[in-house]
Amino acid sequence: MSGRCRSTVWMGMVHNIVAYETAGSLLGLGMSVWQALATVVVANVILILAMWVNSVAGAKYGIPFPVLVRASFGHQAAQIPVLIRAFVAIFWFAVQSWAGSKAVGAVLGLLIPGWAALGDVHVLGMGLNDALAYAVFWVLHAYVISHGMERVKFFELWAGPLVIVLGLGLVTWALVAAHGVGPLFAEPSKLTNGQFWHVFFLSVTGLIGVWATLVLNIPDFTRFARSQKDQVVGQAIGLPGTAIVFAVMSIIITSGTIVVFGRPIWDPVELLKQFHNPVILILGSFSLLVATLSVNVAANVVSPAYDLINLFPKKLNFVKAGMLSIVIALFFAPWLWFDNANTIFAILGAIGGTLGPVAGIMIGDFYFVRRRNYDMAAFYSRNGPYSYSNGWNFRALVAMGIGTILSLIGLFVPALSGLYAYSWFLGVGAGLIVYVFLMRPRESVVALSQASSEVD
Fold first, then answer.
1. Were both Cys, which of 68, 70, 177, 215 would link to 78 (CB 3.0–4.6 Å)?
2. What is the pLDDT of residues 302-351, one digit of tens each?
3. Domain containing 268 — which CATH number?
4. Per the structure, how many domains does the chain have?
């Protein structure tokens, strides 16, 4: 794949409605623009460091996540983290579909008289107009899946840049409407010092949660790298750079809505409606729709579809698995919670907390247990060192269970609610430490102390 193709695919992955709304909603939590920008930068720095650490094995051995995870979990138990990753991808499909359906609804609202009145009729917790728009967008995904990936491949090369053009247009509007940069950055924080730090860590964890799946399956990408240097440089340019730029644009635009409308509008479709211009609304909505369709099928259908095929190879092919994935996605019901900034980050924290222990176990296995050396043949052998007990490494499952409990305990125990802001970090740390100690009880302390000395 050429450098141009790689960069545009990354743009298509990063530049989508959910990424825009997640960054913009930081202002909805009461942050100032400067606080929101700092939160985005910190989250992306932590994210890229975690990806670098977990990407080395993929580049070194040229094998993807579902195979690498066998070393720590065993051939059979490895299906559990793979299945968790699949369901998280399906969850993101549901969220992206709901966000994209708003663009569909905006266009239909221009074409169909009385469309807004349908919102007075409620179906499954949403207005009938929203339900119809969601159904239309869902059927569009089903059509693409049923005809294979060739239908959207050409979208991936220009969907991201198209959204950037739209974003730059909205940034220009914000600067003009606010009469310069000053007013956009002058809005004070609505959080006290104590409140800010709690919201800051919760938001950092939530922003990491958006890409927590990629921390796990980054070997799926780096296994094609020609060298470790290439994969490190490629990630540094591809993800944090584009993600930070896009988040900055979102925050500036959302700040502009505060100046102009007196309230933060982090929903880009809702913002487009405020211009009361059919041309702007149709072109903008089309850009968002294409970008969402591109990232949703490529990132959130292909992966779980192949994971499901791996589980049921005799019963499923790509089309059947893809259709099953998007049917399951309906049960996540994002229309019930996605429009609330606090709920967004609470759920993102849960995702990070669930995936964090698996990342910690993989990192602990590669660096501390295996000392960066895997037995390639053992990945494909039922009787090798990664077979454990009939394919099950129960120590990895215990570590994952303890890590998950610690990462999510603040969500269920009110007295420990403050811990929930650190869910991903607790999950990674607990998964790594418990796994290393269970796997190498005599040498784990030495391994961890040596690693600490090297870092110092």
1. 70
2. 778 877 887 788 888 878 888 999 999 998 888 887 766 667 667 777 88
3. 1.10.4160.10
4. 1
